[in-house]
Specification:
16 helices; alpha/beta; 486 residues
Length: 486
């Protein structure tokens, strides 16, 4: 409805009522105008009717929704199922063109506008979360691992002689395989144990650079968000090393946007040294379905190079999901979620420590990890080798998801590289442990139910361990009696 149509409506409905309706629509349009002019996340979240109006307006700008459109190409936005069309708000053409995921599509002005606005809004949120000097970012319809691969492939053209990637160890398969998939050889730098924490061995990183030669190294691949007792890498020190040796630096910031500490590390690293790009997951930071990531950096031209490396068009679903989410929350809503997550981390930490004390275990001291916690399982491990993994099974069958139980001494081979003590980020961490994280969206009820079920599982495990010990003692006693009779 435009002004002309509202004017025509006055012949059918009382003019005063029509003007009131026009004013109501005007309120929606003012929100749309502010978004288009500023390209920032609105301070207050939008209602669903405004968001749906906006998406409808975008959709009718795409050629597949033109009245009377005649398409004779191989890709004309045809969708067989109406349900599928409605699921995507009839934004069918995706984003980008064959040569650049950020390029505008001539026959999909609405989808192109969606793409540009999403990248702009997400950039605003990254700044709000703590990386104030970030200059560019784009949403890519791949999860974190493949997005890291895209960064490495872009660097290949800048450093054709390079074949190694320096990687402080983190036991997570996708980030390791991202380097293998890109065709490079990971050089694993073992962490150093400081108290309970596993921290970056910066001296070993620098020594390896000298040994291999800086020109043979594609980049340093560091990590922020991770499972305790590993803690975020020493980003500032690594960034200085990278600047000194003129080596690119790519940061795996998978679920770090929700942590002010992780974002501060990136900001500081870029200030004192070199960080070329940092990659974060959409689902882990913005509570949307799996399948998207954000690649961001401090050089607008380099981020554009990465976007041009993506071959072909791309799905608009991740961009659509995160834009709808951020418009719904608004900047204030997202900041509130960050605040609640931090509060829940403190609550989870204090309550898990109490539970650990009750079971003669210990909450590991990992102050540099702002998201994940670890509780020792030393008593379980000493009583029964299988009891640790059994605890994980017990929790899962009791509908506790996300908790990780890490036994000692697990050996895992990933792409022909053997990791000792896999999942613990070290060859020989001193004890088995259990992980729990306070991630964005967690509620107090989640923490309370988890602790209650964990308490029951630990009691059951201890009881079963005692029973097994008694059975073994009886068997040993009977065996000894038999020997005496003989």
């Amino acid at each position: 409805m435009n002004a002309e149509n509202f004017g025509s409506s006055e012949r059918l409905v009382t003019a005063a009522y029509v003007r009131q309706g026009a004013q109501g629509r005007r309120a929606h349009e003012l929100r749309l105008r502010a978004l288009l002019e500023q390209g920032k996340c609105p301070e207050d979240g939008w209602d669903e009717s405004t968001i749906e109006l906006f998406l409808h307006e975008l959709a009718i700008m795409d050629s597949n929704n033109f009245l009377g459109n005649c398409g004779v190409g191989e890709r004309e936005g045809r969708v067989a199922s109406g349900l599928v069309a409605r699921r995507h708000y009839r934004l069918i053409h995706g984003i980008g063109r064959s040569g650049d995921i950020s390029a505008v599509q001539p026959k999909a002005a609405g989808s192109s506008l969606l793409n540009k606005l999403t990248n702009s809004v997400v950039l605003d949120i990254i700044k709000l979360a703590g990386v104030r000097t970030v200059t560019n970012c784009f949403v890519v319809p791949m999860a974190t691992g493949m997005s890291l691969t895209l960064c490495f492939l872009t660097l290949r053209h800048k450093r054709p002689k390079a074949k190694y990637i320096i990687w402080p160890r983190i036991d997570q398969k996708s980030c390791f395989k991202s380097m293998i998939t890109a065709g490079f050889e990971p050089v694993v730098i073992e962490n150093v144990l400081e108290g309970d924490e596993l921290r970056t061995d910066v001296e070993a990183v620098e020594a390896k650079i000298k040994a291999l030669g800086a020109e043979n190294i594609l980049c340093v691949h560091s990590t922020t968000s991770c499972f305790a007792p590993r803690v975020p890498d020493r980003l500032e020190e690594l960034a200085v090393v990278c600047a000194n040796y003129d080596i690119p630096h790519i940061v795996n910031n998978a679920y770090g946007v929700q942590s002010s500490k992780c974002m501060h590390l990136i900001q500081q690293g870029a200030r004192v040294g070199r960080i070329d790009a940092f990659v974060q997951s959409l689902d882990k930071n913005f509570m949307v379905p799996v399948g998207g990531a954000v690649i961001a950096g401090f050089s607008e031209s380099f981020i554009q190079e990465i976007s041009k490396m993506y071959p072909g068009r791309a799905s608009a679903s991740p961009s659509l999901d995160v834009l709808i989410t951020l418009l719904s929350l608004g900047a204030s809503g997202y900041k509130q979620l960050l605040k609640e997550r931090k509060e829940m981390f403190s609550y989870l930490s204090s309550e898990l420590k109490k539970l650990a004390d009750n079971h003669n275990e210990r909450l590991l001291d990992t102050p540099h990890n702002p998201i994940s916690l670890a509780m020792s399982l030393k008593n379980l491990d000493e009583n029964n080798d299988a009891a640790v993994t059994q605890l994980g099974s017990m929790l899962f069958t009791r509908q506790v998801s996300g908790a990780r139980v890490v036994p000692c001494g697990t050996v895992q081979t990933v792409n022909n590289y053997t990791f000792k003590g896999f999942m613990s980020h070290a060859n020989d961490y001193p004890c088995a442990y259990l992980n729990a994280a306070s991630a964005i969206g967690i509620k107090k009820q989640d923490v309370d139910v988890f602790l209650k079920r964990l308490d029951k599982c630990l009691k059951t495990s201890r009881k079963e361990a005692k029973q097994e010990k008694s059975v073994n003692e009886i068997k040993n006693s009977n065996t000894g009696t038999e020997h005496l009779e003989e």
